[in-house]
Here is the input.
Amino acid sequence: MDDGTPTITRRTVLAGAAALLPISAIQAAPKPPATALSASARATLDAVISRLIPNDELGPGALELGAGNYIDTQLAGYLAAEKTAFLNGLEVLEAHAHTTHAVSFAQLTAEQQDAILISIEDKNFPPVKPFFARLQRLTMEGTFGDPFYGGNRALAGWDLIRYPGVRLAVAPEDQKFDHAPAPSHRSAYAAASGEMNHGH
Amino acid sequence: MAINLRPVDVALIGLGAANGVAVLPLARAGLRIAALEAGAWMKPGDFKPDEIRNNVRHQVTTGRKVAGEIPTFRTSPDEIARPAAQYHNMMNAVGGTSIHYYANHWRFSPWDFRARSETIRRYGADALPAGTTLEDWPLTYEDLEPFYDITEYEIGVSGKAGNLKGAIDPAGNVFEGPRQREYPMPPLRSTDFTELVTAAARSVGFHAHMSPAAINTREYGGRPGCVYHGYCDTGGCHIGAKNSTAVSTIPAAMKTKNLTIFEYAHVTRIVTDAHDRASGVLYIRDGKEYFQPAKAVLLGSYAYENSRLLLLSKSKAFPTGLANRHGQVGRHFITHWASRDRVALFPRDLNLWYGAMGQAIMVNDWADDNFDHAGLGFIGGAGMQVSHEIHPIAAASMPTFGKTPRTWGSAWKHFVHENASRWTGVFIQCNTLPYENTWLDLDFEVKDPLGDPVCRITSGAKDNERRAAAFVAAKAEAWLRAAGAIEVITPPGAGAPPKLSNHAAGGTRMGDNPETNVVDRWGFAHEVPNLGIVGASVMGTHGARNPTGTVQALAWRTADRLVKNWNSIAG
Here is the structure.
């Protein structure tokens, strides 16, 4: 059976009777989502994520894919509890750039930026290694998560790792070696209607 | 003061994977049931193919009870227990954890039920691991078989019998105990990958077969077959092909009209009368406190919460917690020793994105007592499993096998572009025993929003399981290399004890001896005869595979016992 949705919907409604309570934790918001970062903090963030997943001959990087937008908006929403710690991390990074090079982190060369990030990762200096790990993790979420959350623009993050995308049903031939299906380029929240989602 | 409600025959605490099964024989027997569930109904639209929602944020749940009662964890009494950062499978919803589990649906091995006596018989008493509190289960595999059978048919399980009344078929698990019937549905479909790893296992002398799964492979119970879309893990099924109790046994029980479900009911205490009998349950709903009187109570929350609610339910007659006169509540706790101990890189696209975690190839040659342990220094072993279904963030977070110096930058970007579809790992699940250094109690330093202490987990080292896992991980590596892996590594954290698993068991162990066990062989508290306990908390050992099939068989058996002995237990 290809699509049992009508069957299961009817059955579950009967089973749940009047007790069915949708949780609908996530609602599509038509207005632009709130952001958490000042312009300068956002510039620092964007500079870091551009080094984590750079824009190169393979295609767009984390910045172009909207990972900065993902982090900025989620810190004003679902991840608000960690906003303060995250801002502190960015400030330490920025202060370190000023101390060592007398300019903003964003104004350093790529090589200088990499050297600082490597120092954090290998020597915990400046001492923000947990922040860096968290930033890296959130960059992964913003690059490879569903575009619904503000990143992975035009589904290009999934194209980067050759994930063929969200589908509501998958045929046997789509599970074969070396024969992944063509990219669906769909958000989970557009899949039901079959509508294409090219990001924000 | 609590608002008194009309008495019912049976009050169920929790309506999840365990009580969601127990409810069906009760309802069919005509008993009037009030099910008190901390969560609510979920519907197909709540289940999305969304890794952030399911796997990163664990939002496939309802209600807030679970968020306020995350246990604390320490590895010895010398430490201060910290809130366990690791995700726990606890879940609030009608159907509970059976909504978001992988649905690998196993029977335990006959050996699991008799591990103590079988070890002494074959290897001598010295082979029992130091510090274990292991007892034989008070029932055998054969005793439980009829209940495995009926729950597999009521829930809907797909698979291939490896031992049908003694007839062995290598297309299934040749090590399983005899079953009276074939599975109700054929196994999940095979793929290039499952065929590759099956052939590879056989080439190195292992048996391999598709995992049984509580997933429809054709229309069953009025619900469709699996569409293999790849978001089974920690998500719910958008078409109801995964057989949670919310789409199978609970709706069947509702048809009898004997079941009333109270959503968002947060049970706070079990109440007893002057005769050491449960008289009912206190719960809070919408800010009001209610007392639900009942002739019998079935406690069926998550393993941590089963022990916690008993410890919280103190009274003059039970000053250290309900059914705890022998200090056994919380003891014999088991966190399943289970992890992905070998990860491999392949030279081609494996295309594991889609399918289901249940679409897994299993090797059981190195589990249970399926091989000679003489001289190995451990008992038991582990089941090994490789699966379909990987999501994009997890895939891109792959280990780099030493091929790029960092997990960021342009070189790394090129690496994941090429390899995110080219890696997998072997999940190892050990037979895990109870030990003296591992228990649950209350943490008076950390309270839930109602002011009650949360559960505190103390779980120390397990040398037996560490040795078993290391032994089996070497077999996993041989398996992966036979399948053509070009790199095999031990990922960081593998085999590093002690850690918590998503499979929590024990704490209200089942056994004949009331001095060392909380519930009797039927699942009723030795000290409170009309209080039944269902869930993995009654298990005295954890088998080398996923627990839910055994949890559900035990739950049905406890409910069946209540129905058939209603007057003596609840009258």
About this structure: Residues 37 and 318 of chain B are 25 Å apart (CA to CA). Chain B touches chain A through 68 residues (CB under 8 Å). Residues 3-570 of chain B form a domain with the FAD/NAD(P)-binding domain fold (CATH 3.50.50.60).
